[in-house]
Each structure stands twice: as C-alpha cells, then as structure tokens.
Amino acid sequence: MKRTSLAILFAVFFLSLGFPARSQERFNFSFETPIARPWYRLGDSTVFTTVIDHDVYYKGKGSLRVESLKKSNGFGGVMMGLPSNLKGDSIRLSVMIKRENVTASSVVNVMLRIDPEIFFDNMAKREVRGTKDWENFTVTAKLNPDKTEGISLAFFLSGEGKVWFDDVIVTVDGKDITKETGKFVPFAEKDPVESGITDFNNSPEIDQRLVDLGRIWGFLKYRHPAVAQGKLDWDQYLFKSIHAVITAQDNQTVEAYYATLLDSLGTTQDYPKAKMEHMIYEVDYSWIDKLSFKKDLKDKLKRIRYTNFDKHHYFSFANGIGNVLFQNEKKYDNIQSADAGFRLLTLFRFWNMVEYFSPNKDLTEPNWNEVLKISVPEMILSRDDKSYGLAVLKMLSRVKDAHTGLWSRPKALQSYYGTYHLPAQIRIVEGKAVVTKLLAVNDGVNVLQVGDVLMGKENKKIGEIKDSVWTYIATPNEAVTNREFAVRLRMSNSDLVPIKLIRNGREMEVNVPAVPLNQFRAPETDTVAYKMLDNNILYIKHSLLTSKMLEENMDEWSKIKGVVIDNRNYPRDFLVFKLGALLLPKPTDFVRFTNTNLSQPGTFIMSPALQVGKETNDYYKGKIAVLVNEDTQSSAEYHVMAYQTSPNVKVFGSQTAGADGNVSYIDLPGNLKTSITGLGVYYPDQSKTQRVGIKIDHLVSPTIKGIKAGQDEVLNAALEYLNK
Predict the structure, then answer these.
(1) pLDDT tens digits, 562-586
(2) H helices within 17-129, ranges in order?
(3) How far is 257 from 274, CA to CA, in rounded Å?
(4) Tail specific protease domain location, by residue (predicted)?
(5) What letter would DSSP give residue 99?
(6) Are strands 424-429 and 432-438 parallel, antiparallel or unpaired?
(7) Which helix (H) or strand (E) element contains residue 503?
C-alpha cells in the first residue's frame, strides 16, 4: 500500500498545519456525535462514505464507519489535530477496529504524525484487512515538545471495504489527555486575547514611527542574541513598543525608548560580516542609516547585523532541503476579534518573515519596503473583523506568490468568499469566463451548459467583479490571476444566482440554483493513472502515477511509440529522480536553488546545479509530450523541469503557476494560516521560474470552440506531434 500511504503523507502534511488546539471535551473520541471540528473528513467523498454509525459500535452509542462505494485506489476517513504543546515523554494512540471485506489490495490505516518530521506511522505495514470483529490497535511515539509544531491523528480506509473505529484513547505517559489537564501547557497564560492596544488615530508621523518599529522589532527578533534564545516574549515587547511610540510626545522620546530597549537586551560584540560566495542578493540594512536617530543608537543596531547563531528560537531550516521552518510563533487561537495591537503584530510578523526569508522578495508588487508603508495605516484603520480580514488578504496578495494565500477561512470573511457554489467549473478562456464542466445537481437538471460564456453575475459585469477582487487574490502572473478569478466567479452568497450569458451566439439570462458549501462535492475525476491511446501511445496522468506503477510496467512501456505525461495536476508521488532517470542517458543539470542561512538571513546564495539521470543505455528513446497549464504548480513544475532535460521531451500548453520551491508555513494571530515559497528555483542557466513559470516548447491554449466540442486541444496538439 505504498502508493496510498504517500498520497496520505501529502494530504496530512498540509492539513495538519491548519488545526487549532481544542478543549478536551470537544475531542469526540467516542464518535457518538456528528463529525464536526476538530474532526475533518479526508479523501474522495464521491467514493467513500464517512458517517457516525449508531447501529454498530464497540462502546457507548456510536462508532465511525468508513465504507467504499465503488472500486477505487483512493482513501476516505477523518483526521484531527491535537494540541502541539503536550507535555511528557511518550504518546500512545489506541483504537478499536472492526472491518468487513477489506480487499487484499486495501488496508485500514490508523495514523499518528508529529511534525516537523519527528514521527510518522499510519499502520500501512501491519496490513490490516479482511473481515474481523472488534480488535484493539495502538501506535506509540516519543514526544519532543521543544521541536513539535503539530500533532495529528487520522483514521481512514485505503482501497475497498468497510471499517468501523471506536473507543479512541490518547494517553501521555499513561494518562488519558481528556482527563489530565496537567498534560497541557495552560494556553490562557501564554496566549492573551487582548494586546492592550486599543484603536487609535493615526497620522503621517504616527504611521512612520510604526513603520520604523516594524523594521526594528523584526530586525531584533532575527538578529539579537537575547531574542534568539527564546526566553523573551517578543510579541509582548512589540505591544509595549507600540504603546511607547504612539504615545510619545516627540521623536526624541521615541529614540530614548529604543535606547532603553537595546540596553535592556544587553550589550553585544560587533560581529564581523561573513564572506559568502555565489550571492544572488544581499540583505539590505541601509534603512538603519535612514532612521531619524542619533549615530550612537544606529551604531548599536549595526553591531548586531551579522550575528552568528548555532540555532534560533524562531526559525530553522529543513534538513536536506533548506527552506525556512518558522517555529515557536504564538497562534493566539482564542482571540475573537483582533485589536489594533494584534493587527499590527500580524503585519510586522509576516512582513519580516518575507523580508528575511523569501527568496523572491525582489518580485513583490509594490516594492516590499513600500508594502510596509502602505499596510501600516490599512491595519490601523481595519477596525472591524471583515475589514481586517480583507486587509490581511491585501497584504498577502502583494507578495505575488501563488503559494501565498489565506488558507484558513475566518468567519468574518464568509460573505467575501461566498457560502454557495455554482454547479459548474469555470475557466478563463480566450479572455472570457467559460463554463468548462457541469457538476451534478439534486434534481438532475443543470441550467448551465458547457461552452456558456458568462457576461454578468448578480447584476455586475464580469469585468466589474474582477476589479472588485483583484487586490485580494494572488496575481503572480496572468495564468494564476485567471485561475483564482474563475474560482471567485463560482462562489455566491445566494442559493439562486442570476447570470447573464451568451449561448450559441445568443444573449440570455438564467437563474442558477447554487449548492451550499457544506453540501458541495467536487466533481469526479479520472481514476485511471495510465492508458493506451491509438497508435501505441501511452497516456499518463501524473496525479495518479506512483513509483510502484513505474516498477511494474517499465519493461512494457519501453516498447511504446510515444508518451504523454499530463502534468495539469499535482503529482501524487515524488518521481523526479525515478521517472527522470528513465528518460536520460547520463546525469544532466536541471535546477538550481537559492536559500538563506542562520548567519545572514535575507542574503541568498545560488546553489550548484542539481542533476537528474544516470549513465545508462537503457533509457526510453521515444518521443515524450508533457502537458501543462495554470494548474501546474510547485512540485508539478519541478517535475517538468526534470523531464524536459531529455532531448526527446517537448512541453505543450500554457503558462504555469510560477510557484516552484518548497513551501514554508506561517502562523498569524487568530489562527490565520498562510505560507510563502521557501526556496528560489532557477534553471541551470539561472533563469527564473518564480512568477514566470516553466519553459514551454509549444504554446497551446484551449478555445471556446474546442470546449464546446468536448476537445482537449492541448492533448490533441501533443498527439499530433507524437504521431508525426
């Protein structure tokens, strides 16, 4: 079941970062109440049913039942996050399991995961399958509270059959966490719900003081040895500093405050600047000289510019990869409404993370220094929850990174995002909003048709809608802008959505019944990882291809005429070096990276080229066509970079997302979640991929005519090439 466990690995990694800590009584370990937070459904809801069963259970009045509805290689189940600050030496997860007709190629999974990369076990190797009455299973791990960023557990079925889960018990050092409150660090003591900074009137002078504070606070956070040790509550220092600078009578008082603050942190040596080779760009400290303070204070700041650390409380780097791992940031789960202090903390925390750790800071719009100046008054004046949420979206969008968005959905933004979903997929084709796929509706009748061109929605023209959301969505390039705008077009706050459209050359108006989000189900997708097309051509869907499939089929595939690798999706398995090696006769450069380090965060170094392939005569010598579009993002782009090193590979399609490189996750106050691209990714010739996308040999885009005819024009162009 390696293929399934790898798929789960990716799903769990992203989801586990998004779970807030929960009060103990809400864990619902007995599965007697409906599935709700903190539990989240996993997998394909069109293939698996995941429900509370009040007829079959081990104890109490209910159990969790997961059942496959049809043949599938997928998975279904539930997952939740535990508080990451559990205290103790070891954690033990116990569950009762009953299974029925779980096929030989399937497996029952119980997962315990501790991030980052501290522990992972999903019981795949135990091969729990077949039919058997209630049986107890346990998973045990050592705890590492100082390094833990997330603990998650999940119960799911991979493949076919039926399984029940019940009587979940989680213990730390033998004590049930639902009964032993001492196993939790008391959240209330560490995470206040108010900063002490109430709304205040801003002015150009106050705004500039806060811009300076944001820079100085972030600089000291990442460069001062006293802060690096983690013994100071640096967020509280910010709140005190905000109060000091906004109430100061003049700039001399502000300067005196900073002098006192620096003295309180202790004296430091004058650290020399380390020599570095292959720099792409260097951290810029010229802003210190521009501060309206005396030379003595500015010299004290300059002394710590190049502090060297063995480790830092607030960041580290992923082993063997190099992207930054932000750590020990307070989430402030309990704040109901962010006051002025928390709003500025959100801005200053995020701005400095990008300032010192984004390899693509030079690609923001506007310039990142200007973003700070613009965002300070926006945060001050965002005095209700919705305007604050929109200010956060605006701040994130200025990074121009398709990896950067607000991945948590605060209640205040529900009306912005929409609570209903149109029963159709929409894409921007030839500059127009076009229905490309219909989704199932309850009464079986969908008033929309494939090929419909939307001209207006809810009494607004499509262009007006785009203008209204432009500043809140990721816009790194035209491809991603269109992709994200199409997502917004599908959403509404009404169950009946009036739409103006053109169908077969005729303008018309229709009222489209929309689906509540809690009832919306994504459309079924192709579940076939590979298939033979006419003329001995193999089609591979990368999102379903696994390493095991390659091993089992490569001898046969080596004889085919040509291959289509469809990368208009996200890879299920990491196949860069496994599949890439099958396409090349020798090791070949395919990528370079930039990353920063402990001694000079903000200075980025270019790595030597990484190679793919090996010396061999046993490689595939036929023609290969790789398909890409705006959905080709991150790992998908990385795979294409490796494959296109082969002279037999040609890339067909349209601009990709331009967001390659491993993702670094960020916690913001109020349990807001976001991320940035944590590595710079370049071609061997040092040409950029960020915001640009992958190099394409044959530009091919869908047309409205082709969509109406049910044609995949990108695939057709690739087949024409392979059949020559």
Answers:
(1) 999 999 999 999 999 999 999 999 9
(2) none
(3) 31
(4) 512-701
(5) E
(6) antiparallel
(7) strand 496-503
